[in-house]
Amino acid sequence: MAINAARAANRIHSLTPVIGHLSINFKRLLYKSYVDCYVAFCAQITFDAPLAHSKCLISMQTKFCKRALGLSKGAPSAIGTVDLTLLPVAARMREIAVKYIRYLEGIADERIVGLALRQAKTNAEKFPRKKTWYAQVKALTDQAGLSQDQEDCPVKFSDWL
Predict the structure, then answer these.
(1) pLDDT digits (tens, 9 = 90+) for 87-135
(2) 149: in domain
(3) Residue 117 lies inside a defined structural domain of this protein
(4) In which region does residue 70 sit, left (phi positive, over 0), alpha (psi from -120 to 50) or beta (all else)?
(5) Cβ-proximal residues to 95 (8 Å cutoff; 6+ apart), any chain
(6) Cα gap 124→132, rounded to integer Å
């Protein structure tokens, strides 16, 4: 399982240099997606984007997902790095992060993001002193005493993949 998860994590592609010719508005969209991939998907910002642009956006989102799960050297050290244009989300960042982790835990193991999450769990167990994003979210969950059956978050994660 760990070997398959590592392979899955390695198959997550980073954004290609082809985005250099895109419009400024779409580059801003990519930046927001890079900063907060799951909020970008929940906001459905790809709704009116052309297919080619959507592929670039999804590639950027998977790159950040890899970082958010602690699977790359550039993983963020804390939750809450959010663009200024997403201020309404900033106050709910902890709740959204916890709900997102719970959503990812429900993904089947054969899905690439599900495997990446399993690898993040393995990394957190192997190296408990490292402050990975996953470890911090789990600590926040335990500290806040949030239960698995809380469904008051208005954010919908079903369209994330």
Answers:
(1) 344 444 555 555 556 666 666 666 555 666 677 777 778 877 766 666 6
(2) no
(3) yes
(4) left
(5) 146, 153
(6) 7
